[in-house]
Amino acid sequence: MSAPRAPRLDDVALQAGVSAATVSRFVNNPDVVAPATAERIRSAIAATGYVPNMAAGALAGSRSRLIAALVPDIAQSLFNDTVEAMIEKLAEEGNSVVLALTGSDNNRLDAEINMALARRVDAIILTGIVSDPETRERLRAHPVTVIETWGLPDDPIDVAIGFSHRAAGEEMARFLRGRGYRRPHLVVPRSTRSERRATGFVERWLRDGGPEPTRLEVNVPSHFGQGRLSFRALSDLEEMPDVVVCGSDWIAQGLIVEAQAVGMRVPDQLAVTGFGNLRLAGDMRPTITSVDVDGSHIAREVIRVLRARAAGEAVEPRIDVGFRVIARESA
Amino acid sequence: MSAPRAPRLDDVALQAGVSAATVSRFVNNPDVVAPATAERIRSAIAATGYVPNMAAGALAGSRSRLIAALVPDIAQSLFNDTVEAMIEKLAEEGNSVVLALTGSDNNRLDAEINMALARRVDAIILTGIVSDPETRERLRAHPVTVIETWGLPDDPIDVAIGFSHRAAGEEMARFLRGRGYRRPHLVVPRSTRSERRATGFVERWLRDGGPEPTRLEVNVPSHFGQGRLSFRALSDLEEMPDVVVCGSDWIAQGLIVEAQAVGMRVPDQLAVTGFGNLRLAGDMRPTITSVDVDGSHIAREVIRVLRARAAGEAVEPRIDVGFRVIARESA
DNA sequence: CTGAAAGCGCTTACAG
DNA sequence: CTGAAAGCGCTTACAG
């Protein structure tokens, strides 16, 4: 038994007694063929075991149904919920997601953008910031749909779906001030967005008459271990803060564990806030006050933008999905 | 200025004064063209801004350079390190990874397998177990390379890269017995692999003369919050265990936090072990005794298998990458 | 609602 | 080391 060639559109057409064009129409849009024809094609597909060749479809047609998602990493990323929601929703519509990792290296980003363009993806979704102006310009010049997520730059490459990190920082400052805290300390991951939140926090805090917050910078990706180290670093400060504003829930969690290990009570002796509202924030003991970003909401907007583009409709360049401070026990 | 058509192979060929075939050869294998020709092509590519169309390449050639990775989820998955390592290594060789989410639903798995076949991927990498016999048979009948990872089934669909979960369970039993623990309690996620580890643990424990371990089953994906609940459930047991063997580091971490919250000392009053050796295991306080699975090793073997297949060489159907118990403070 | 035919942009024996 | 030419399996105006 020699390897039998995989069935093609032609084989199905022959079996169903119609032309290849009609089978193609049925596969892509079942409603446009007559019901009786549809039925014959359906059984011919079943009989032959036909699986469309999407590479051929992409070449002949105008869309690849392939979406590139470029993310810094997936091992420890606040974006995972968003990426997961996007992949699920895109899959429901027959799209596939090519996931590419860029780290925080612009060369890798450039290489992965080229790969995405070579694959003729229908859209490139960026989660993480493209800071290099040349790369931004190159993408802008290209006809492909580019969606920046999780941020809201003043001048998006194409369309941005996210929220203002600065506003999130401001809102946290307002919240903590309202709770009566006096001496905040910031633990800031070295990423553009974290820094923007920190800026928003400090500006608002100072404007409201508070003292200049102290701060510690940490590397990305942020993780649990940094929380522990960040707590120990507090002893270097002239005065102990009454609340530590952490750049991620992982850092907050680690900091709480370390504080408790030396017998300090959270939030009575030291309050803590996180960012991202990961599941663990609600499960930690004490539960962690955090900022929620609705990944499903972002994913829904991505779908909406893609649909609009496919239909040739205009899309707003900046879509604000907002954020919410979630007050819990830790601050 | 009308939208200029994207440059094709022909355009580069014309510009370089060679045939399209030669440009194609250069793009795919620079060494086969004469140095002088190569140089002319190189500058023609730069001048035109040519980006190859991989959809056309996939159709004309025999490979798509597209690999499908099917995973249950990415929000909370022990596989993330492995998937990240695979994506990085595959990208270095010019491959892209289509990431598809299957949950624990066989219908979704089937749909994503069809999608992968429709895209004519060069390989399907499964991380998570395919339990449905029909699906296994269907994949086996297909000529595509199928790599099962993280497990070592007796009869792989094609090739499996992983380790024996049963052996990992046995090893943990041996380890804990050696440390003098007497009454283990297992927290077992409802997944085939976790259950296999639990089986291995119990068999070994009983064989060594220990009493039947108690056990609690929890849903997947496992997470921090389950650790807290699992700790509370300990009070329902007739006798308090001296060590809790958790199905993941997240569960272990949550259990430790909850134990400490009620003033219990870990490991003095209650020892705890995890699984997966996530970064947090080494960072937690106390550090968590866990089982390490080397994701990079799995990724390297995936690359090796893919290379061998591309070269038409034979590959062992079962590749054991092993595991290591990492002894730390928690047990 | 359906068919005939051109074309999408590559790769790859084959021949030199 | 290089070129001419066939072919990969679809989609989509165009015409009916």
Structural class of chain A: alpha/beta
Order of the strands making up the biggest sheet of chain A = 2-1-3-4-5-11
- Poorly predicted runs of chain A are none
User: What is the CATH superfamily of the largest domain in chain A?
Assistant: Response regulator
Strand tally of chain A is 12
- The SSE string of chain A, one letter per element, is HHHHEHEHEHEEHEHEHEHEHEHEE
| Percent range for β-strand residues of chain A | 15-25%
Termini of chain A, distance in Å? 71 Å
The CATH topology assignment of the largest domain in chain A is: Rossmann fold
The 3D shape of chain A can be described as: elongated
The biggest chain-chain interface is: A-B, 54 and 53 residues
Radius of gyration of chain A: 25 Å
What's the number of domains of chain A? Answer: 3
What can be said about the biggest beta sheet of chain A? Answer: 6 strands, parallel
Give the % helix of chain A. 40-55%
Could you state the oligomeric state of the chains shown?
A: homodimer
Overall CATH architecture of the largest domain in chain A: 3-Layer(aba) Sandwich
Q: Please, what is the average pLDDT of chain A?
A: 95
CATH class of the largest domain in chain A: Alpha Beta
- Per DSSP, the total helix count of chain A is 13
Protein name (chains A, B): LacI family DNA-binding transcriptional regulator
InterPro entries (chains A, B): HTH_LacI (IPR000843), LacI/GalR-like_sensor (IPR046335), Lambda_DNA-bd_dom_sf (IPR010982), Peripla_BP_I (IPR028082)
Organism (chains A, B): Sphingomonas agrestis
Domain HTH lacI-type (chains A, B): 7-61
